[in-house]
Design goal:
Length: 666
């Protein structure tokens, strides 16, 4: 039919009506797991491990290893990236981490200057736990050492008592498996009625969570309620969410600037949300869940509709509203009921979160895991938080990529438009459309995917308080992205490179150079729909990096130490070991060997913890870094004005792989 009527009709229909059903989000810095842990295979083992990514099974990076051997089932040998918190809440003391990602289906743009094929929102968030506050082992944020999903079973009935709840939790949560959201978070979601006002098109959502009603684990995108880690599907699919969540918003990269006030004012960072609280028995402890998702049902059924606040951290030293509320060191303090409390009667002093940043999403092209308009990787500079307690935090970063079509207005299409047969239904599954004449064309339109959210998350990392010596001033992070292999083997992950590629800073700023790698990036079969193999230098499967100065980016041969300017122009402010009077040569040596050596002679390394890192006495470093550690905790440096180029001696392989970067100091 198309041929006789002219193929234009087909083309137009296909371009404008075929919705976008395959699209992905891959986080490259910090390394996104895409649900991988430490697999030697090209594909991840378990796409339900921690969260619902909707991504290709080949994406993601393994958790880092501390040493030159795989951590295996020893979690203490896994490397967590360690970023320094901001030095205070005041301008001039910021720490920055450059987030980098690729998104397959394009984003950003506007009708006038750079038309885009879908609407798109990026939501950047994190969650943390204070490492110096006692947390039950079951509840610790962790990467785990096996790839299984945490277990879960629902209560036998709605009247489960606290003892039974505890045993149900204890049976489910395994210490050797990864954990991000808590077990209670999923339980709450499984047992709370779903939001009946949502547009679910003609999807048939499961009607029974086992206790006789449909719940928040069933959504248009996940109608049967597949479980991924302890993520709550309803919360995953919608943002801003209308109940308290454990996530803090960093930034929303919105469809357009006009939308920012909506995203910002509804963010749980500053907008408290309610939840229904019921008691185990009258006057008893509050339960962590309730069936009721609105005030009327809640109070009618004897619950209390409680308003909860999100927060950065608690400030327990302020015990009254009068002493608490105010601004100190650039941080705002509020008196409110924290969302994760066991005592709903008690307001506490909380360090407040600010409204998230919001900007227009950067433009990127559809069907490409490519760069943005600025010729750089898609990136966002995260202003890391400052925790006034000076406690170290254990954290996870999460990013969602939300695309929708104009086939219906996402903000004004609600449950009144649902169900097959409803005349108002704006989209339906694989519809056939009339093109004139007897034939019809079937569209590939899946209503669980018109309006679809993709996701990636980091492995666990630490946000550390700054030591005194680097307390004030701006601090940037310089890291390495990518994994072992050539471009088709690593795809849709990326090859090695420094990130950011050109760090621009001033003489007063600091940079923390740090990287992590895995010893199990073998990229073995199964390869899924891509290539297997791990082309690269040194021992198969192992990531290694180092940093040595180059004269210019066009060179591939590093400068001998005697000719370098980078190190004599640097002040080494911090290294993770004791190094009084550390010399230019010593920091150059440390960087060049990924931390394998710290000094040349025993007379320079007299501290006990440095004895195993001396050139004169240690087993020789293998020339491709095979016996060097996969991860490098690094150093914090300040540089004098100049431009410094550098490379990685192992991975850089001209015409095959380029791992080079530069720092421009103004
Ligand atoms: C995705 O966008 C839709 C609008 O198209 C919105 O209703 C939903 O809340 C968004 N979800 C997330 C996670 O951003
Ligand atoms: C911004 O995006 C919203 C949501 O899609 C849309 O309703 C609005 O018309 C857009 N505004 C501008 C100025 O483009
Ligand atoms: C450079 O890369 C190519 C392709 O992966 C490889 O064949 C070659 O051996 C590499 N060179 C070195 C010195 O390792
Ligand atoms: C780069 O790799 C190709 C094979 O992919 C090889 O022929 C070439 O020699 C390599 N270049 C270098 C400098 O090793």
């Amino acid at each position: 039919m198309c041929h006789s009527k002219g193929s234009d009709c087909c083309l137009i229909l296909l371009v404008f009506l075929v919705p976008l059903v395959t699209s992905d989000l891959y986080l490259h810095n910090p390394r996104g797991s895409n649900n991988r842990l430490n697999e030697r295979t090209a594909t991840r083992t378990n796409d339900n491990r921690l969260f619902d990514s909707q991504n290709n099974a080949r994406g993601g990076y393994n958790v880092g290893d501390v040493t030159d051997v795989p951590a295996g089932n020893d979690a203490s040998k896994q490397y967590q990236m360690k970023y320094f918190q901001s030095g205070s809440g005041l301008p001039g003391d910021e720490s920055y981490l450059d987030i980098e990602w690729t998104n397959q289906h394009g984003c950003g743009g506007n009708e006038d200057t750079s038309p885009q094929k879908q609407n798109c929102i990026m939501v950047l968030q994190y969650m943390c736990q204070d490492t110096s506050v006692a947390v039950a082992d079951t509840d610790k944020l962790r990467d785990g050492v096996v790839t299984n999903t945490q277990d879960y079973s629902r209560p036998a009935n709605e009247n489960e008592n606290e003892a039974l709840k505890i045993s149900r939790k204890t049976n489910a949560v395994k210490l050797d498996r990864g954990l991000q959201e808590l077990w209670e978070w999923y339980d709450k979601c499984k047992l709370r009625e779903r939001n009946r006002g949502l547009f679910t098109a003609d999807q048939k959502l499961n009607l029974n969570n086992g206790l006789g009603y449909s719940s928040a684990v069933y959504t248009r995108q996940n109608p049967q309620g597949t479980r991924q880690g302890y993520e709550c599907p309803e919360e995953r699919d919608y943002h801003p969410y209308w109940h308290p969540t454990p996530w803090r918003d960093i930034s929303i990269l919105a469809e357009n600037r006009t939308m920012c006030s909506y995203h910002q004012s509804n963010s749980f960072n500053t907008q408290p949300y309610h939840e229904c609280v019921e008691m185990y028995n009258p006057g008893g402890k509050p339960k962590h869940w309730s069936r009721w998702n609105n005030e009327k049902d809640c109070t009618t059924n004897g619950g209390r509709w409680v308003q909860f606040s999100n927060y950065l951290e608690k400030a327990p030293s302020y015990v009254s509203e009068a002493t608490c509320v105010g601004t100190r060191n650039g941080m705002r303090y509020i008196w409110a009921v924290p969302y994760d409390t066991e005592n709903i009667e008690q307001k506490e002093c909380l360090v407040a979160l600010e409204q998230p940043d919001c900007q227009e999403a950067p433009w990127s092209r559809s069907n490409h895991l490519g760069d943005g308009n600025d010729g750089k990787n898609l990136h966002y500079r995260w202003h890391l938080p400052y925790f006034p307690s000076t406690h170290e935090q254990r954290c996870v970063f999460r990013m969602r990529y939300n695309i929708s079509t104009d086939d219906y207005d996402p903000y004004h299409t609600d449950s009144g438009y649902n169900n097959a047969g409803n005349a108002k239904l704006p989209v339906q599954n694989n519809p056939e459309i009339d093109i004139g004449g007897p034939s019809k064309l079937q569209l590939a339109l899946n209503t669980d995917q018109t309006g679809r959210v993709f996701q990636d998350r980091s492995h666990v990392f630490l946000l550390r308080p700054r030591p005194q010596i680097i307390q004030n001033g701006r601090l940037f992070n310089l890291n390495v992205r990518g994994k072992r292999g050539n471009i088709v083997q690593v795809y849709p992950a990326v090859e090695y490179d420094f990130t950011p590629n050109n760090l621009v800073m001033t003489e007063r700023d600091m940079v923390h150079i740090q990287w992590t790698g895995s010893n199990t990036h073998n990229n073995n079969a199964p390869g899924g729909d891509g290539d297997t193999g791990d082309a690269g230098e040194g021992t198969g499967g192992t990531d290694r990096s180092n940093l040595v100065q180059l004269r210019s980016l066009n060179d591939n041969f590093p400068l001998p130490f005697e000719s370098t300017t980078m190190w004599s122009n640097a002040e080494t402010l911090w290294v993770p070991y004791s190094a009084p009077g550390i010399t230019a040569e010593e920091i150059a040596l440390n960087m060049a060997t990924s931390g394998y050596y710290r000094c040349m002679t025993p007379s320079r390394c007299t501290e006990k913890d440095n004895l195993d890192y001396i050139v004169e006495t240690k087993t020789k470093l293998q020339n491709q870094l095979n016996n060097a550690p996969a991860s490098y905790e690094g150093a914090v440096l300040r540089f004098r004005k100049g431009i410094y180029h550098f490379m990685c001696t192992r991975n850089n392989n001209f015409s095959n792989r380029s791992q080079k970067g530069m720092i421009t100091v103004q």
